[in-house]
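pinned: reference chain
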Amino acid sequence: MTSAAGIGYASAMKPKSFSDMRCSIARTLELVGSWWALLIIRDAMMGARRFKHFEKSLGISKNTLTSRLNDLIDAGILDRVAGSDGSAFDEYVLTEQGRELAPVMIALSQWGDKWVPHAKGSSTEIIDVRSGKPLSQIWPRALDGEKLPLRQISMRRADDAPPLKWD
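pinned: its structure tokens
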């Protein structure tokens, strides 16, 4: 089964589509909400370009990988291009839209390193390529650049959005 955005699901029931929701988080999850999609994006950010690279890294079946790669291409997150070495094998590269997921991926990685660490430590490092040093934690900042404590951050409905009633 696939959602309205083309993201495939193994479930026998079609999940609710988020594509028409006004919520940016919901619409983003419509495109990258599957764990395979996020892991493919992670691998692409770390330099994977060929089908065999993703297959080896993820241990995913060929048909599932093909489906997820096509979903990410359809969503505008990946492009399929001719092999950079002139071979007959296509390569998968992040689009600008895909590259702009970097802060999301970094935040997920940093959160995971803190809250669900592996006993042997992280398998990835997020570094500044100029210095080779780790990046500081992705963190919300005020418009002037000041790092904000979480107690000073909230989400609210846009002024013209229908109100939510929690009771």
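why pinned: Helices lie at 24-32, 35-45, 51-58, 62-74, 96-99, 102-115. Residues 102-115 form the longest helix (14 residues).
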